[in-house]
Please model this.
Amino acid sequence: MTTVGILGGGQLARMMALAGAPLGVRFLVMDSAADACAGQFAPMVVGDYRDHAALTEFASRVDVATFDFENVPAESARWLSGRIDVYPNPHALAIAQDRLAEKTLFGELGIPVPPFAAVDSLQSLEAAVARIGLPAILKTRRLGYDGKGQFRIRSRSDVAGAWAALGAQAPRVGLILEGFVHFERELSVVAVRSRSGEFRAWPVTENWHVDGVLSASLAPAQVDEAIAQQAVAHAERLASALDYVGVFALELFLRDGSLLANELAPRVHNSGHWTIEGSETSQFENHLRAVLGRPLGDTRMRGIACMLNWVGELPEADAVLGEPGGHWHDYGKSPRDGRKVGHATLCADDAALLGNPLRRVGQRLGREEQVAPVIERLGG
Model:
């Protein structure tokens, strides 16, 4: 029986293990936290990702390795790749970990991006602001996620404050200034590429964020077919250039009928959780199929789906489970502010049948604001 090693033991690893069970796959998880939630479903090696002794034990017990979050040190993935197969490849991981390298690659591939500039001093920040204009966002090049490691600069008077907030991190993780995008919609393409180069994508998804954290996703996104095709084409070009194997998400902004790339997530992705119930093959199963060298599954949808993300604490499950097409996912985590603790997915045959269940769930849970933008997009 094949054993897949997963670097990172969060909810993505947990859902990967659940998806792999019907395939007859075993798992070994490595995480620095002994209480990582994937450990409830798979044995674990507890250790630092840079600890070669822990990595050696991990490598000796698995046939192939992958990861469930993008901040696994790329050098650790490279070290492992000298001993076992690692997918996605460490180069793709390294590119995704550096916003400057990522944006540069997008540009080289002809994928439009907002204006950006590397920043390593207050003087270079001031020069970048003068060139790019305001508003803009100063970000760490590495380690930032879910809105962390960012400072929005609205006026010249904010420049010194932005440097004071993030400048000390410049020598360690680097900084980048990006032009602020007054977008109309946030979209993502969740896609998969196999070892042989076969590429498939799920329908383009629209996403809504609150304080930088995903709140809701709707698939398929209610956008023109030409926009959806262009988004998938960007994702395919990126996957080919990186010789990528596995599932990834390309996050995009839609503005004035044009797409701008935001970032690459080199892993199964929050905006693809709806695929578990809403598509023929989930992102988690297809990721495993890809890294194991097996045929990819169909990515067609079974109607329409909305994913609601639960952050901080879980609401009452029965409000969702009482709905036709309602599905509940508890990540087995203790409640904590800002922590992703679960999600729900509501599925229906078409858009006209999804609005009322969403409205009822929002009312019963006191989360009308969370479901309102999705209902509005559905025309309700």
About this structure: The chain has a mean pLDDT of 96.
